[in-house]
Specification:
Elements lengths: L3 H13 L2 H13 L4 H22 L4 H25 L8 E6 L7 H12 L3 E4 L6 H11 L3 E5 L7 H12 L7 E5 L5 H7 L3 E2 L3 H11 L5
Helix pairs in contact: 1-2, 1-3, 1-4, 2-4, 3-4, 4-5, 5-9
């Protein structure tokens, strides 16, 4: 049984962006033999959700959001390796290949999505920023991904999302992967126009979307 105050402390550490405290609490969870999935679901996820909600309300700005993401990553850096030691090969909820599209070096939003998806049990393959379209496809085929996440923060690079969908169709792979798009200039209408499976405006929405498409809910 995980003490309620422990989960509350972890939630606060992530939400307020305290990476050292989040890491320390994660190590405590491992040493105490807590259920690490429950630690993530009950401590890390609520924390990053709070940060996302505060961002949407205009109470958090980019520095606070980045700090929260760093705290989340610090905790997961301790918890994820421990989980992998005992996880079954098919233990992940789904496989995601994600990255920022070629010509675009922005990755803060993409990193938040990666952190939240990982915390929710997805196997995430983060290709980083400025990723060539073919690299997304090659990795997705290699790992047999369920989702491909394409991030674009510039109007000049979001057209790459369309080109990727056209490439999938040309290769007859448009039904094999669920392509999700996001980024500042991207909209739900754009996603529908190019034939993507979905659009998310933030990290919380992206995780929720993946879970819904997998038949679950956040």
């Amino acid at each position: 049984m995980i003490p309620k105050d422990f989960l509350e402390k972890l939630t606060t550490a992530v939400a307020h962006g305290y990476p050292h405290e989040a890491e320390s609490l994660a190590r405590q969870a491992v040493s105490q033999g807590y259920d690490l999935h429950a630690v993530i679901d009950g401590g890390c996820v609520p924390g990053i959700r709070q940060a996302g909600e505060l961002w949407e309300k205009g109470e958090y700005f980019l520095p606070e959001l980045v700090s929260s993401a760093e705290a989340m990553k610090a905790a997961l850096a301790v918890l994820q390796p421990e989980l992998k030691k005992t996880a079954a090969p098919s233990g992940a909820r789904g496989k995601v290949v994600i990255g920022t599209i070629e010509g675009d070096i922005h990755d803060i939003g993409k990193n938040l999505v990666t952190a939240l998806l990982t915390a929710n049990g997805f196997e995430v393959h983060d290709l980083g920023a400025n990723v060539q379209l073919q690299s997304f496809l090659d990795k997705a085929v290699e790992v047999e991904a369920d989702f491909i996440g394409l991030s674009a923060l510039l109007t000049t690079t979001m057209t790459g999302q369309r080109r990727f969908m056209e490439m999938l169709k040309d290769k007859g792979l448009d039904k094999k992967f669920k392509v999700l798009v996001g980024g500042a200039p991207v909209t739900a209408r754009w996603a529908e126009e190019i034939g993507a499976a979905g659009y998310a405006e933030n990290a919380v929405a992206a995780a929720d979307l993946c879970l819904r498409l997998m038949g679950e809910r956040l």
